[in-house]
Amino acid sequence: MEEAGSADSLGFRRSLGAVSSLMAGHRSIFGGDRNKKEWASRLETGAVAARLSGIPMKRAAEKYGGVTSAAVEKATGRGWGEWLATLDQAGAEKLPHKDIARFLQQKHGLTGWWSQMVTVGYEQARGLRLKHEKPDGFEISVSRTIAAPVDRAFAAWREAPLREQWLPRTPLTIRKATPHKSIRIVWSDDTLLSVNFWPKGSLKCQVVPQHSRLASSETAERMKAFWSERLEALGAFLEK
Question: What is the 3-state secondary structure (H, E, C) of 88-155?
Fold first, then answer.
């Protein structure tokens, strides 16, 4: 056990020596021998030492803004860890939302949609944006698979007498309806509700209401609970 421990210790010291040598070639960054020794001490007890000795490093969260790191990497070529580091280096923590999104488009070639998604994720990761917060307010969505054909679910939203059975005494304005696919609604407080319908075979469908431009995180949480409850009522109505 002592020989193995000595070998591991020797390997660690060699690795640390390599890091120190690298730092010696960049004194302009570390500020000379005195600061070099200080940095070496920090590295020995900090993140680089942890990596060299095989201790797992803390990783970036797998999801920000509702988007997984794998999905971001597939679409943009970088996962959340890389984007967070890139934006930190660019000083994005001090920039407004629109400037971060513009930087991502102009400097890194992201599309408008993905520049917004990465910006929102970065702001959430750095505590600059609350849960559910978007540039124009707060937004939530819920989903439920219902044992009913998609045309019946669509009708239960579109037709007032049917809607009254599971969403009673709720004034709203339907702005646009695409049969069996989506409905765009102006809610009673002028917030926006988008409802999407996805067939799951001939006898089931998925219903996804997305409520946006909400005034606060508290309102967003309340409406998320509300729509979860209403989708249960819709399911009970259509499945009976």
Answer: HHCCHHHCCHHHHHHHHHHHHCCCHHHHHHHHHHHHHHCCCCCCCEECCEEEEECCEEECCCHHHHHH
